[in-house]
Amino acid sequence: MGCGTLSSVKRGKSEKALKSALVIQNWYRCRRAWLKTRQCHALSIFQSIEYTDEQGQLQLSNFFSFMLEKYTRILEEDPELVTQDKDRQDYLGLIDVPDSYCGPRLRFPLTFTDIDLLIEAFQQQQILHAYYVLEVLFETRKLLQQKPNFTHTKTSPSKEITICGDLHGKLDDLFLIYSKNGLPSESNPYVFNGDFVDRGKNSMEILMILFVSFLVYPNDLHLNRGNHEDFMMNMRYGFTKEVLHKYKLHGKKILQILEDIYTWLPIGTVIDNEILVVHGGISESTDLNLLHRIERNKLKSVLMPPIPIDGDRATEKGNKVGAIITARGLRTNGSLSEQLTKYEWEQVIDVLWSDPRGERGCYPNTGRGGGCYFGPDITSRILNKYKLKMLIRSHECKAKGYEICHDGKVITVFSASNYYEEGSNRGAYLRVSSGTPPRFFQYQITRATCLRPLYQRVNAFESSAIRMLKERMISQKTDLIRVFQCQDHSKSGKLSLGQWAFAMENVLGLNLPWRSLSSHLVTTDKDGNIDYMSSFQDIHIQKPVKEVQPTLIETVYRYRSDLQIIFNVIDSDHSGLISMEEFRSIWKLFKSHYSVCIDDSQLDELAERMDLNKDGSIDFNEFLKAFYVVHKFDKLNKSDTKFA
């Protein structure tokens, strides 16, 4: 009897332990799912804001067309920058590489040892001398001009090809890929699918490694153009600034040659006549036969659509002189024969900017403002039409570094890990070979913060996302308050959750889960009603001048990126200075085109007061920096600021 009791006690303890283990396991699963949901919401904030910014960037194309029609003060070209390859040796002959230079010295023709030399130097944070940068660029342009619009390559069961997505200046990711997967060679070919530059701080180093690898293995390393291989995009997203900072003396020449190199990058790669690799995607009207034939070097920038001109100005059927924009400013010596047709331009834009979606059909890419969203039926139709089996593209950050959709016919690969913030996403590359499914390889550059527990990493990532979202909210504070008050019929200062979410989406247009995010953004009373003015209680935009009206502050802050790129175009010598007259003229055009209601006298007064040395010029970078957002918790340690 004693033995039976003991056995019953043991069985009871085992059942209790099992139940406890199940409770703990269930709690852990729920907790992890909750953290993953928060991480997903934070990622959606970053992505929505990024796409909205890109939408604004593409909308600038309309403004530039408008500006060219109205702006009568045409900047003269710098004759020093008009020269082409014929001055290559003359230009390089003027550059001296001093004996004191301790960085890598490349020897032409390049060999695989130069790839190793360059990687080792960049790992030690060395800067490649401008002489070698220019020599690499001249050689790269010369070789790219011999390439077709689409590079065709073959694999075999014993010879895979590696496909990498966006790198965006993240040099450590390229180092890791080459370390894990091996350097390019005849037996280890690569496709790099665009967006090598911008956002990250080492875009120049990435370009140099890729271009040198391409010069050593021109038939085994393939470079596709992305939407950021575009000099106008570089002005906004950081690469132009990086080049001018690293190469103060020869930066303008480097940028000029890069502008031309971008236009010669192939549009895509076709593998085994079965796999199409392009940066963005396709549309219902994608014509691969046409894309194989077009003169791709005519597409200078996505912000420079073909410009038909009325009256004295040329039409698409005419042959008169039109006005075009270059990195050096405005000029009028470009003819329409130098441009793609509107249809050809749209074909390339679709390939560079489009994104897949689960819904059938093809409709405008409202998130980015350019290209289209294409559904699984469009994918099947285009692939079947050209006897292809798969589309591999990049262009979108994915939490896992890759994503498969459209019944396995579309693969997205994104190779920049920690793209938005540390811990935000993994990077990935894939390998394909004839007759076998793609193989995926994921990674994440590990920093100290990545070693912290998941909840701490999610808190930090979410905190950054909420901070960015609040800055977007404060930039449109006046518009939000107006919509809030229109719905607040009782003038109580409160709205229901549904009303508040509707107002946020209506004004900001970010397509976010506002109801879930409300706890991070506003205060709610016991009845679930939202104090809508609490949206702005811990954040404001610093006024550069006390008397400036809040609406002007918000407007300049909201459009600061658009204004930056416009002024970079006008600032032809990249000095950071523009005249007061140029400032007024361009602002008036900008205000008219965007229907911004700001009194000219307010802006004139502000500009004059910020011209501290009264030399009649404006340091526009400093002008923009005068408008910055102040957070209530700026002085707190980030680890103390939680949005759990």
Automatic annotation (TrEMBL):
GO terms for biological process: detection of stimulus involved in sensory perception. CDD domains: EFh (cd00051), MPP_RdgC (cd07420). The keyword Magnesium applies. Keywords: Calcium, Hydrolase, Magnesium, Manganese, Metal-binding, Protein phosphatase, Repeat. The keyword Signal does not apply. Its cofactor is Mg(2+); Mn(2+). It holds the Pfam family Metallophos. GO terms for molecular function: calcium ion binding; iron ion binding; manganese ion binding; protein serine/threonine phosphatase activity. Residues 558-593, 598-633 form the EF-hand domain. Its EC number is 3.1.3.16. InterPro entries: Calcineurin-like_PHP, EF-hand-dom_pair, EF_Hand_1_Ca_BS, EF_hand_dom, Metallo-depent_PP-like, PPP_dom, PPP_phosphatase, Ser/Thr-Pase_EF-hand_contain. It catalyses: O-phospho-L-seryl-[protein] + H2O = L-seryl-[protein] + phosphate; O-phospho-L-threonyl-[protein] + H2O = L-threonyl-[protein] + phosphate. PANTHER family: SERINE/THREONINE-PROTEIN PHOSPHATASE 5-RELATED (PTHR45668), SERINE_THREONINE-PROTEIN PHOSPHATASE WITH EF-HANDS 1 (PTHR45668:SF1). Belongs to the PPP phosphatase family. This is Serine/threonine-protein phosphatase with EF-hands. It comes from Physeter macrocephalus (Sperm whale).
